[in-house]
Amino acid sequence: MPYSPTRARQFRPALLLLLLFPLLAGWPAQAQQKQLTMADAFLNRSLQPENLRQFSWIPDSKDEYSYLRPTTNGPDELVRGAVGAPLRPVLTLAELNQALQAAGAPASAATSFPTITWVDANTLLVTRQSSVYRLNTATKQASRAFGYDAAAENVELDPTRTRAAYTKAQNLYVSLAGRENEAVTTETNPNVLNGQAAHRSEFGITKGTFWSPTGRRLAFYRMDQTMVTGYPLVDLTSTPAREKVFRYPMAGDTSHQVTVGVYDLNSRRTVFLQTGEPREQYLTNLSWSPDEQRIYLAVLNRDQNHMRFNEYDATTGAFIKTLFEEKSTTDFVEPLHAAQFVPGHPDQFLWRSQRDGYEHLYLYNTSGKLLRQLTKGPWQVTDVLGFGDKNREVIFQSTAASPLQRRIYAVKLSNGAVRELTPTAGTHTATLSPTGRQLLDVFSSTSTPRLISVVDVAGAKVRQTLLTAPNPLAGYQLGETKMVTIKAADGTTDLYGRLITPPNFDPAKKYPVVVYLYGGPHVQLVTDSWLGGANLWMELMAQKGYVMFTIDSRGSGNRGSAFERATFRQLGTVEMQDQLRGVEYLKSLPFVDQSRLGVHGWSFGGFMTTTLMTRSPGTFKVGVGGGPVIDWRMYEIMYTERYMDTPQQNPEGYKTANLLNYVDKLQGKLLLIHGTVDDVVVWQHSLNYLKAAVDKGVQLDYFVYPGHPHNVGGKDRVHLYQKITDYFDDHL
Q1: Is 556 helix (H, G, I), strand (E, B) or coil?
Q2: Sign of the C-alpha dihedral, residues 305, 308, 314, 316?
Q3: Helix count and strand count (H, E) for the chain
């Protein structure tokens, strides 16, 4: 019977307390008893902190912004606002569909908002089925701007939003009003790719096309892979299965050859930059001069220890000069970011480099003169957001407060004076408004799911809070997350870790532990962010009674050159030593069952899992390695040779890291998992390991995901982690 205040008054107070006590005591306990499922961990988006979807600053406005807001009775609507002004509706989904259909868009209505791109204060772009439409938000009328081939890939709009570049098969095309699907290249050889990311997307490369500031010219990669040995993948979707060959340059072998073309949309001619010999070099970090007359490239030798920052004539392709060089006699040089020109100063640009041991900002002029090092200290610049104070300062993100944190700062171009814009401890990611006066700050920490605010850059003060996300896991029974610090195997370097203990933790009990690890370059798993950087699978495992532990060993990212490069020419060794220090820490905890330690990781983490199971046999009772590198000789040139040199230069390093040499040392239970069409860590790695195990009479477990590449995604990820969890349940 429902609780009624009227009826309750009929009972004496003592009796009322007796009757209500079980309800009052049990209600919060029941509310906190909700358990995560595997589908929750990977597919339930409602368990991720609330966000502002499609937030965007609106150009040519007074720092107005827009985002999608849920409505009470239907789909989202697009709203816009500004500090000190109320939100106002801009566009409903029904209005968008009506405008697009009136402009000739397909009759089928969009069921959710497509990606919105603002052109100016009143005009936005929307793409529907390979056609780009301009929509006036005041009149709610749209017009078709241009279209492109339905099979287009790698589509990129130019800065003026009036042209698009795209690839189809091995060729590059441009589309604009009156000139749709214009071929920039007419390559017939499928092993010569135009307009696609080159060099296996290393060196910060994420794309293969680079528009000039006004869109009059288009620079692009041309990657000739004909000299690279073909590698077979097996397509199991047909019967019989078919071979699909792709070009995969392995360490020590012949690499592909890359050039940079420049297409002029007025003359419809292409010239190629005269980047010279040898052909096996890396052309990275391309940027345009503000006047579109010059192109700048970081040209890196194959040994990756000598970089030249070169200037080329964009009209003729001629080499002009080398502005500066970076060399290393001990390890490698790794350019990761293109030059950024200072607005209003076409002869000045920013360059990011680890030349002093940490990633910092340097101000150069186009004569090649270093004007000043803008930032300095034992910390990393992790992002450059843009320019503020009328282009007199740079807004950047860094680890200056702590390697676990990210905060936003401003530095004066004139003297390098730094000030902090976001002093709250935790992780801040931000987007700068077009004027440079406002900052959208997206903040989280181990105690804050998400807090989104507008920060005034000049005053470094929060002007407006747009979202305070509630804890999406408030109704779930979770363990406690603790951040820990231990010493590395060198006895001096701090390593940061994350320990998750089960709900209803009993310090008198003994718990099994699963160590989740990666350990490789450019990755940091432990941060002062929501859940400490953990995922919901780790929380699920804690619910099941496991202690979950992660530590970022030397070799991982965002700690500076010495930390990352401690593993140079010996991948796996130093990382293993540091992970074993983590094991020592775990064994010092009275609630850890030392006889029940497990380890799991994917990719580099799969390599480390297998390394620990065989190079430190007996430490872990159970291991699950996914997509593991087994023999670095079979991994790609760009990554492997940076950290290991070539097999010819470093035979002992490759031999020591080759896990085929330790198969017979395996103790405990090991499960290896691989996708059958993995084009990152090819399937042959773990198959060779299986063959060695058979040859040596070693038993291990194995599972494959047919048709999956390097990562198992989508709904099958639930299957993958159920497999991993079951393996630990069965053997740990």
Answers
A1: coil
A2: negative
A3: 12, 43
First to last CA, the chain: 46
The angle subtended at Cα 57 by Cα 56 and Cα 61, nearest 5°, is 145
What pLDDT is recorded for position 515? Answer: 98
> What is the DSSP pairing of strand 511-516 with strand 547-551?
parallel
Q: What is the pLDDT of residue 30?
A: 43
Residue 11's pLDDT is what? 32
CATH code linked to domain 480-731: 3.40.50.1820
Quote the pLDDT of residue 47: 98
Instruction: Return the pLDDT at 28.
Output: 41
Please report, for residues 41, 173, 269, 534, the alpha-carbon distance to residue 52 in angstroms, rounded to integers and kept in the order given. Answer: 21, 34, 43, 22
Contact 203/282 with Cβ under 8 angstroms? yes
Q: What's the rounded Cα separation, in Å, for the pair 639 and 648?
A: 16
What are 227-245's pLDDT values in tens digits? 999 999 999 999 999 999 9
Residues of the chain with pLDDT under 70: 1-32
Ranges for all domains in the chain classified under CATH 2.120.10.30: 347-470
Residues with a catalytic annotation lie at 603, 678, 710
Domain with CATH 3.40.50.1820 in the chain: 480-731
Exposed/middle/buried for residue 203 (C-beta within 10 Å: 0-12, 13-18, 19+): buried
List Cβ neighbours of 625 (8 Å cut-off, separation of 6 or more). 600, 601, 602, 605, 606, 607, 609, 610, 613, 670, 671, 672, 673
Q: Is residue 53 classed as helix, strand or coil in its secondary structure?
A: strand
Instruction: Identify which of 476, 473, 472, 495 has the alpha carbon closest to the alpha carbon of residue 484.
Output: 495
- What is the predicted pLDDT for the residue at 24? 34
* pLDDT of res. 26: 38
The answer to whether the beta carbons of residues 228 and 276 sit under 8 Å apart is: no
The single residue listed with the structure tokens 């397509």 is 235
Question: Using CA atoms, how far apart are residues 452 and 442, in angstroms rounded to an integer?
Answer: 5
CATH class label, 347-470: mainly beta
Supply the pLDDT for residue 75. Answer: 87
Q: Is 416 in contact with 396 (CB distance < 8 Å)?
A: no
